[in-house]
Amino acid sequence: MEELKKVIESLSTGKAPGKDGIPPEVIKCGINVLLEHLHDLCQCWDEGAVPQDMRDANIVTLYKNKGDRSDCNNYRGISLLSVVGKVFARVILNRLQKLADRVYPESQCGFRAGRSTTDMVFSLRQLQEKCREQHKPLFLAFIDLTKAFDLVNRDGLFKILVKVGCPPKLLSLRYPQWSKTRLRSRSHTLRHLLRSVAE
């Protein structure tokens, strides 16, 4: 219950709601009344099933303010998810981050709480200075994967999670959530999301 409460208290406000129309402010302000009910809802954990409404997303596009408006590449797709679904996903993410802290090497700063690119820039500068002092060559490669989240192979990601020791209970919740996610456009057409993961 405490874990769920912390997640609710950390919700960002001023965000658009999902299909249910419930903004994060309602959940945060009603925490005293809603906490037990949300906890009961999150007991789908024990059943290994996530309600479909917590997986469905409304898709809206936002112009990036650059380039030709008729070019689809100049728009960013935003998934508006149920806030209750986001709360549930955050609980799972927090548990996965504990696993990641055990699995990731110390040098891994991306996608880790409390670390940032600033840490890596500092480490890189230190490495450059050491190599310069010792007159050793240093070779660097920077890779920027365009639309990386859009191209994630979910089956491959699932296999990696199994390999690194992700608890089966977490996998039984995450995998169906990935495989049965549906997107709804302004035309109200529901389509199954076959690849990628939410950013």
From TrEMBL:
Domain Reverse transcriptase intervals: 43-199
Highest taxon in the source lineage: Eukaryota
A family per Pfam: RVT_1
InterPro entries (UniProt xref): DNA/RNA_pol_sf (IPR043502), RT_dom (IPR000477)
Protein's UniProt name: Reverse transcriptase domain-containing protein
